[in-house]
Automatic annotation (TrEMBL):
InterPro entries: PTCD2
Superkingdom of origin: Eukaryota
GO molecular function, one term: RNA binding
Gene designation: PTCD2
Biological process terms in GO annotation: mitochondrion organization; regulation of mRNA processing
Cellular component annotations (GO), alphabetically ordered: mitochondrion
Protein name (database record): Pentatricopeptide repeat-containing protein 2, mitochondrial
Amino acid sequence: MGPQPGPGVRHLYTPAALNLDHYARQREETSVRFANIETSFKARMKELLAAQGKAMIFTEDFKNALHLAEDNEEDMGLVREMSRRFNRQHEGLRFGMYIFGPVVMRTYHTLKQPQEALEALHDPELCGFFDQLVSHQVAMDLLYKAERYPQKLKDLTCAHEYAVAVSNRFDVLGALEDPVELWDTFKRETLQAAKECIGELPRARRGFVSTETLENIEESHAAMLAGKQDQHRALSRRTRTLLGRDKKRHVSVMREST
């Protein structure tokens, strides 16, 4: 066991930075909407997966399944199989589709499932599914909180395919037995890997659009494609609000750095 977090300890990322707070709200809303039909919905998803042929996994069904998933073997199996089916049916179509990699990782993070997250990243049937930096950020934070320090990057064997540029330095931690030495080495190696990844100085120009805003834009686009005009208009209004918030934050950060 590594050292236990004390007062004032900060994790790798805040929940807001990983959009976990927004994901939690979506889970609550979905739970209310499906209060009387959750069991039948999950049963229908299992029947769909068991059906032979080309039964499609629809975006909204997948979202609902992720937001309804609980910490049990049956639901984890459903998430795994729906991810595989969705990835297969959209193979080669990476543009204009909803990106589920980060949402699946947030599901594992919320339900404290580090092993499921690692297995998903290794799964050859999910190649390309987690091709987003934020998916790996959520996975790293989950492993960190589970005190799986040596596996944070050692087990992310597909990381190079996604240009997640932090090198495989955490293998050294596996040989350490003393908790203090382990923790000190972890901090030192993390800092060095981060410096090599992004440089010691921030880039002169940085994007100011948050992950929450980008996902809201994706949801709006998906609603438009599905012909859900009311939902599309509501999400578009929210996008404008989020962009305004992101711009203010960006301006504030730039002022502080000059």
